[in-house]
Every structure is written in C-alpha cells, then in structure tokens.
Automatic annotation (TrEMBL):
Keywords: Lipoprotein, Signal. Residues 357-456 form the Metallo-carboxypeptidase C-terminal domain. Residues 478-487 have a biased composition (Basic and acidic residues). This is Putative lipoprotein. Residues 1-21 form the signal peptide. Residues 37-285 form the D,L-carboxypeptidase peptidase domain. Residues 468-487 are annotated as: Disordered.
Length: 487
C-alpha cells in the first residue's frame, strides 16, 4: 500500500481507550475493515503528532449506512483526489463496509442508532467504539457525516416527496450552537454551506435547506446518532444529506460542494484534482480503479474489467494479499474464486490458478513500436501497434490469448492487437492483455514470476467519459415508499 506525502492510508489499531487509538499507519486493512485516510500530513509520524499551528482538522465519515453510495463515494474522492495544503482532513469512506457490500442500510441494524448505548455483544460494537475514538481525538475539530436521504427536505409540506419528513438535500444540525473552542456556531456554518451549494445547483429543484432536529429537546432517535455523540462530547458535527432521487455521481457532486464549503469556512486549504462538475465527478468515480496482488507483482485495472477473469496466478503456499489503489476496493473469497468489489458494485470474479511464486525477477525488457522499454512485474505498459518481450535466461513468457504452434516460450515474438483471440482481454474493450513470466525449474512445475499488462489503448477517452455522464435524473433508482428514515 502506498504511503505518499499528501495521503496516508490508515488502519485503526486495537482500541483500549479513546483518543489514543486514532493512529495513521501504512498498513493494508482487512478486507471489510474500515480505513482512515489522513490528508495534509507528510508522514505517519507527523499525522500522529499533537495538533499543530498548521490548521484545523476535519473528520469526514461516509458509509455508516450501506445503501447510501453518494456519501461514501464522495468521501472516497476526497481521500483519493484531494491534496490538503493547510490543515488536515481525515476521511473514513467505508465505516460500515459489510453493509456497503450488501447494499443494506445495516446488516446488523442501523449503525447510526448505536452511539448512545450499545451492548458489547452487538456485532458492530468494536467498529462503533473505534469510530468514537477517532471523533474524540483531540486533533479533530469538527465532524461531517455523509448520508443519502429520502426525497427532498422542505420546511413546509409541498407534496409526498417534498416535506418536513424527508431528508434529502439538507444540512442537518442537532442544535444551533455548541460550547467549543472553535466552530461553535453550528447554525451559521450550516447556513453558509447551504447558501454555497444553492449557488451551484444543477437544477433549481435541487435546492438545499437547513434542518435543525433540536435533538436535546426529546428526539429519541437522533439522540442515538454519530453526530449527537460528537455534540455531547464538545465536537461540532453536521449531517449532510443528498437526495436518493439522484444517481450516485449527482449525489456525490452535492456532497463535495458542501464539503468544500465547510473546509473553506474552517480555513482548510486544498487542491482538487478533477473539475467539480457533473461530468467531472462521474469520471473521477469511474476511472483509474485498480488493485495490486502479492506486493505489486500483479496489477488488475478494474475500470472496464470483464465479469470474470480466469486462471489468475495465485500462491499455493499462503493467503492472497492485495492492496487497493483506491478506497472502497476489496477482494472477498468465494467458493473457489474471489469477488472484487468497488463500493457496492461487484466488478469481477477472479478464478485462480495456483503456482509456486518466484520473487527474483525485477525487470523485463520489451521492444515496443520501435523503442526499447524496461518494465517491472506489475507494470501496465502502453502499446500503439506492436510489442515483443525480449528473451530472459531461465524464464519463459506466456502471452495470454495468443498462441503459436509449437512455441512454449513466447519471448521474442512480435505481437499485435489482432493476434489475440476474442475474449482473452482483461477488459470488455479488448485493449488490455496479460503477459506472464515464469521461472523455469528442472523437474518441477514452473514458478510464477510476475505479470505485465499490455495496454493497446481504451475505446473511450477520459474526456469522452466525462462528457457522457448520465443526466441528473437518469439512472436514479425508484425510491421505496417505506424509506422515510433518512439520517
């Protein structure tokens, strides 16, 4: 897993107390554990230091309810596509990852009703305790909890979808102010965020409103929520709702507009690495999704991957290890295969073929379109017309989807896109092809040494992807009439 200057992917250590448990470390989380991403810090040591004069820290939480992809995708984009230049932003995009996978509000009940009292026997006790410890960390100055809510909140009744009982398109506070050293005027901050997002609407019908639940005045349901837990412990906290009437990227667009308003109000400075437009958000969610296996010896681009990928080399002698290159990507074992998920979407099934592994190969030399290229196992290598892998002493090359009669080692062969048989590409656009290298072993089966992905260029450019984003109301699922709970 990468640990770079602007972003450190973090896993919470075991919790024995409160604030001391929030640690940013460079480790791979278990497949369905939630992750903490710390932005605005250069090293884990800096992230774990006490609060400094560099600016405030905002905690963003997504995925507390698994059927709200606008919230958890927006949080994921902050973790992967923003650089914080002043202050810090901590992001948990996948708090309830098991429920995200199942597209369920909560497979063990509503996690956002477990912050007042929770018996230790509850299956989510540890998860709730750990996120509480992050909220209580003295470095955290404010908390945003991202949701997708039913319909459109309106202060007065307009119709069945637009009324005070709905939650969508609202910024929620539990009370008007709080006794806190900073950011104590909750209503002012929330109204400023509402004013900002209403200046950036995709349609005037999408208007946002402030919703004050006045939780301390006897709202028993809201007393159980994450934000009210934060309020009771002196932490400014807000619920952000986008309407479930919209497709995911439109919900995420509105979440990001509001998130950026809060960051600016807090004095957090940032750079965003995509345009904050409908198409820009859609492209940012869909592009450059990938995972690595076995310390990077295999890289699987997931943007356009086939529904199943067969005969993927895996180690005989130990469990599979993987590193997602984006938040929300995970690998789950199934009967004889592995499912790859990106948020609530199952992208592909990996059907393995088991080998001994050999880790001694560090470089492969190729001739590509008349030039010499050095590549490492796990690299994705661009090709225009033709490539050939130079022979490697003690190794053989297997180019998946291409055969030459009587040839066991396909090193040295000139290969063009049309040489591959249909259906053998990694992607549905038939642009990505596997080149596998094996160590020769006398008297034993060959050992897998690494994989290259040869990229002949996708059928659709990133600019086209952004231009062709679905319109605001297309692809929006029909909301269940019973889905009134919202936050």
């Amino acid at each position: 897993m990468k640990c770079i200057a602007a972003v450190i992917i973090c896993l919470l250590l075991s919790v024995t107390g409160t604030a001391a448990a929030a640690q940013c470390v460079s480790r791979t989380a278990p497949a369905l554990d939630f992750t903490l991403h710390c932005l605005g810090t250069d090293t884990p040591a800096a992230a774990n230091a006490t609060a400094s004069a560099s600016g405030p820290t905002l905690l963003i939480v997504g995925g507390i309810q698994g059927d709200e992809p606008g919230g958890f995708n927006a949080a994921s984009l902050v973790a992967s596509h923003y650089t914080i230049t002043r202050g810090s932003v901590w992001v948990v995009p996948d708090l309830n990852f098991p429920s995200i996978i199942k597209r369920s509000r909560g497979i063990h009940g509503d996690m956002n009703r477990k912050f007042a009292r929770l018996p230790r026997r509850d299956p989510e006790f540890d998860t709730v305790a750990r996120i509480k410890s992050i909220i209580l960390d003295p470095r955290v100055d404010a908390v945003l909890n991202l949701h997708d809510g039913s319909g459109f909140y309106r202060p007065q009744w307009e119709d069945a979808q637009r009324n005070p009982n709905r939650w969508g398109q609202s910024v929620i506070i539990d009370q008007s102010d709080i006794k806190a050293q900073r950011f104590s005027n909750l209503e002012l901050l929330a109204r400023n965020a509402v004013d900002h997002v209403n200046s950036e609407l995709l349609d005037t019908a999408h208007r946002y409103y402030l919703k004050n639940t006045h939780t301390s005045m006897g709202d028993r349901e809201m007393e159980k929520t994450l934000t009210y837990f934060a309020i009771l412990h002196g932490k400014p906290a807000f619920g952000i709702e986008a309407s479930k009437q919209f497709p995911t990227h439109i919900r995420a667009y509105y979440h990001l507009q509001i998130l950026e308003s809060f960051m600016r109000q807090m004095g957090i400075q940032f750079r965003r690495h995509f345009p904050l437009t409908k198409g820009g958000v859609y492209a940012a969610i869909e592009r450059d999704v990938a995972m690595r296996l076995y310390d990077g010896r295999i890289t699987l681009p997931l943007d356009d991957i086939r529904r199943a990928v067969n005969y993927v080399p895996m180690r005989k002698d130990r469990p599979v290890t993987f590193s997602p290159l984006r938040p929300l990507v995970t690998l789950l074992p199934q009967s004889g295969s592995f499912d790859v998920y990106y948020g609530n979407r199952r992208l592909t099934a990996i059907r393995p073929q088991y080998f001994d592994f050999d880790d001694t190969l560090h470089s492969v030399t190729l001739d590509i379109d008349g030039r010499t290229v050095a590549a490492s196992p796990g690299d994705i290598v661009s090709v225009n017309k033709v490539f050939a892998v130079r022979p490697l002493a003690g190794y053989r090359v297997n180019i998946i989807g291409m055969t030459r009669d009587g040839v066991d080692d396909e090193a040295g062969l000139s290969v063009r896109r049309e040489d591959f048989m249909p259906g053998f590409s990694l992607d549905t656009g038939e642009s990505l092809y596997r080149v596998e290298v094996y160590r020769l072993r006398q008297g034993r089966d060959d050992a897998f040494a690494g994989m290259l992905i040869m990229n002949f260029g996708g059928p659709q450019s990133r600019q086209q992807l952004a231009m062709e984003a679905p319109d605001a109301m297309n692809a929006a699922g029909t909301e269940k009439k019973a889905d009134q709970a919202g936050r």
